[in-house]
Amino acid sequence: MIKSSKKLISSLLHNNLKNTSVLRNSGIICCYSSNNQNNNNISNQDNNNQDNNNNQDNNNNNTNNNNKIINIQNVKGTHDLFPNEQRIHNFIYDTGRDVAERYGFKEISTPIIEPFELFDRSVGEGSDIVMKEMFKFKEYDPKNIGSGPTICLRPEGTAGLMRAIINESSTNHLTPTQRYYYQGAMFRYESPQKGRQRQFHQLGIEMIGDEHPRSDVETIDMAMEFLEKLGVDTSKTLLKINTLGDSDSIKAYNEILTQFYQQNREKLSPISINRLERNNALRILDSKEKQDIELNKMAPLMNESLSTKCRDRFKEVLEGLDCLGITYEIDQSLVRGLDYYRHTIFEIQIIDNPSESQGLAILGGGRYDGLANQIGYKYKEILPSIGWASGIERIALFLNEKLIPKPIKPISIVTTFPTLSINAFKLCSDLRKKGWPTMLSTYHLEKENISKQLKKVINKSDFVIILAPIEFSTNTLIIKNLNEHTQSLVPLNDIEDFLLKNNISKI
Ligand code: HAM
């Protein structure tokens, strides 16, 4: 690569761009997961170099500190998002925003730290999330250590959003439907693996205040639209849907399940025996323990416990989906792992058999009519609500990379002559103020010769402006198009016209 760069630079300098392969091969290939290492490209190499430099810096610092060499790794299950990955996340967020706004939703942000009690009461004390996956700690009070309230990093966004709405008190069961969307980091102490992290990101939507079955259909339709706009291959996904019925149906089902698990108590994992003792048999159904999974295959299904009203409601939801041409599979074993759900629940899963992602949920949601009352809603009426959240890291594994906008490449400015460095600096500043992303090849224009400067910008820019002494003395600049291997002499006054004509985008 270095050899080819040298060749390229010398050909650039002599205005003789015969060696075109280097540039042709430098197109950015989008690369998300570490599995794509074979696709290694120049921008990733840049990242790696940056990584190595950072590590070196760290190591130097660390060596000075107590003379010990230590290597500080990121916390298990967390991930640094370098620009290429951040760009993919941003594409998912931007697409989600566009879709949500089109359906009349508005963005909201709630804190990452919340009182632990919020999730204990809503997601449920018997859920996997609350029993095993919370990052929780005592709020620090230096005067009385250990006395503070227990707070936690949020494991999901729905409960926090409902808490915010209740506290704000402008929403009640009589106000018109409220539509919100949000995005951000969530935290669950899980065993990290592909598509499962301890810090991950969600984009979610919540519709508060409507109990009509068509609101279920609309939110599901929105989820499908979101995935379609991201270019997720729908032949590899499946919408699974089920109903839990209302609180009475859930209570009746819990009793039937309790009986079943009592009879098979010796086959249960210790954590599920605990759930059984806390009268929380429903949560055993979504246990990830191997021995529970085996037993759950024989557990009675929800269907029998549903009232006619609940069945009719579900039928109406399915008819709505049929009407919009949304395909689904009714999965009576789907219960979802959060206590707040009522009636419709759904998940969009990967069905890429026999891939290791088989069954992985990229999006999940449902109706949670009882949640507000569980966390301090001051009215006795229910606040009917429905929503979903999608896992950004998981979606990133399955979207169409061709749809991701290419990274913006700034124009580079180089100069062959040290005394022109101040002019280069000024030009750079002027172009930026007019909206063109621009950078100097280096601040050390005096120290680095032209080939070094050009080498630095080869993969970073499509256009390079060169301030050369002879041309600059007649107020003219040299502009090189690194993709087309052409060069133009452009009068200083015409530079904006040139950039506009060449479709160099402004920001
Ligand atoms: P959830 O199914 O727990 O639902 O999470 C939603 C999505 O977040 C999952 O489908 C998955 O894509 C992603 N996800 C969950 N855990 C992880 C993880 N450890 N690593 C990577 N991705 C993960 C909820 O959170 C509900 N609040 C959804 C909802 C909104 N229901 C109603 N409104």
TrEMBL record:
UniProtKB keywords: Aminoacyl-tRNA synthetase, ATP-binding, Ligase, Nucleotide-binding, Protein biosynthesis
Top-level taxon of the source organism: Eukaryota
Catalytic activity: tRNA(His) + L-histidine + ATP = L-histidyl-tRNA(His) + AMP + diphosphate + H(+)
Recorded GO CC terms: cytoplasm
Entry EC number(s): 6.1.1.21
Enzyme class at the top of the EC tree: ligase
Residues reported to bind L-histidine: 156-158, 188, 202, 206, 336, 340-341
Ranges where the record places region Disordered: 40-67
SUPFAM superfamilies in the cross-refs: Class II aaRS ABD-related, Class II aaRS and biotin synthetases
Database matches in CDD domains: HisRS-like_core
Example GO BP: histidyl-tRNA aminoacylation
Domain Aminoacyl-transfer RNA synthetases class-II family profile: 77-410
Gene Ontology molecular function: ATP binding; histidine-tRNA ligase activity
Family: Belongs to the class-II aminoacyl-tRNA synthetase family.
Name of protein: histidine--tRNA ligase
Species, as recorded: Dictyostelium firmibasis
